């Protein structure tokens, strides 16, 4: 069974280093001239999949924007995941789950078990009940060739008060998360399957990402203020492992499929010039 890290490396090398979010929030639906209901959600999501799933490395549906429409929204999410994967894109489901014990195991089963209709290639998780609480997700990913992206250094203004806080050992909370994930990826060839989420707008923070040996998701590029040129300052020698993520900058080009493709191509070219 091929690991997620190896599949991601191959996808980034062949399709370019780009992740595009599928974030069908009400304002974007309105911009596309779509109703803010399940029918609009379906049209939006399937247009993005049809335009981009055969050419970008990763598509990243934000689960909350599907969940708000109840069972119909979840059914559309299932179809979005399935069709994206069938077209060759890896699917990173943005769910940011974080819990303990059997509850975390249930989340892991829902999103990473091949028998689940919501099964994605990878998910996002929150470590703030302790990185060890995420063990069921790490185990499920390892068992089924999946991936896990752990929040580490986010770009929201509330993040630093927690992530930059000092532990008793003198490290920041974020550095503790980074170090624990680095241990999980130790010895992985090509690229480990446990990654980190590091915002593209955070600038230099003094945190050391050099030993992670896993993918580094960088959300916040484009309309959210991040610029590919700034990635070098954040990631330094780990640039080759960075997966830049765009949402509004690309999605706002819709609903025309050709315009979506052109926007994604511009983003991929800009990021490729920095990452190499």
UniProtKB/TrEMBL annotation:
EC number: 4.1.1.23
Domain of life: Bacteria
Pathway, per record: Pyrimidine metabolism; UMP biosynthesis via de novo pathway; UMP from orotate: step 2/2
Domain Orotidine 5'-phosphate decarboxylase: 17-263
Keyword Lyase set for record: yes
Molecular function in Gene Ontology: orotidine-5'-phosphate decarboxylase activity
Record's keyword terms, sorted: Decarboxylase, Lyase, Pyrimidine biosynthesis
Active-site positions on this chain: 96
Reactions mediated catalytically: orotidine 5'-phosphate + H(+) = UMP + CO2
UniProt enzyme class: lyase
Gene3D superfamilies, A to Z: Aldolase class I (3.20.20.70)
Gene Ontology annotations of biological process type: 'de novo' pyrimidine nucleobase biosynthetic process; 'de novo' UMP biosynthetic process
Family the entry assigns: Belongs to the OMP decarboxylase family. Type 2 subfamily.
Protein name according to UniProt: Orotidine 5'-phosphate decarboxylase
């Amino acid at each position: 069974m091929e690991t997620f890290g190896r599949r991601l490396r191959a996808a980034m090398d062949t399709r370019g280093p780009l992740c595009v979010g599928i974030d069908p929030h009400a304002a974007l639906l309105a911009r596309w001239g779509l109703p803010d209901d399940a029918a609009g959600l379906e049209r939006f999501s399937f247009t993005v999949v049809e335009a981009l799933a055969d050419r970008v490395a990763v598509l990243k549906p934000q689960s909350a924007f599907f969940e708000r429409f109840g069972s119909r929204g979840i059914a559309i999410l299932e179809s979005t995941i399935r069709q994206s994967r069938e077209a060759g894109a890896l699917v990173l489901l943005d769910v940011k789950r974080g819990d303990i014990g059997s509850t975390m195991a249930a989340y892991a089963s829902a999103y990473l078990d091949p028998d689940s209709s919501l099964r994605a290639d990878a998910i996002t998780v929150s470590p703030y009940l302790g990185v060890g609480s995420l063990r069921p997700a790490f185990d499920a990913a390892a068992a089924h060739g999946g991936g896990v992206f752990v929040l580490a250094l986010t770009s929201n203004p509330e993040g630093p008060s927690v992530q930059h806080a000092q532990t008793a050992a003198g490290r920041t909370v974020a550095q503790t998360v980074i170090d624990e994930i680095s241990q999980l990826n130790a010895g992985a060839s090509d690229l480990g399957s446990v990654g980190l989420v590091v915002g593209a707008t955070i600038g230099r923070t003094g945190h050391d990402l050099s030993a992670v040996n896993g993918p580094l998701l960088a959300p916040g590029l484009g309309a959210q203020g991040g610029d590919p040129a700034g990635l070098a300052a954040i990631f330094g020698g780990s640039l080759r492992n960075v997966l830049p993520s765009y949402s509004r900058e690309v999605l706002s080009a819709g609903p025309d499929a050709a315009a979506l493709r052109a926007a994604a191509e511009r983003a991929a070219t800009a990021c490729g010039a920095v990452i190499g």
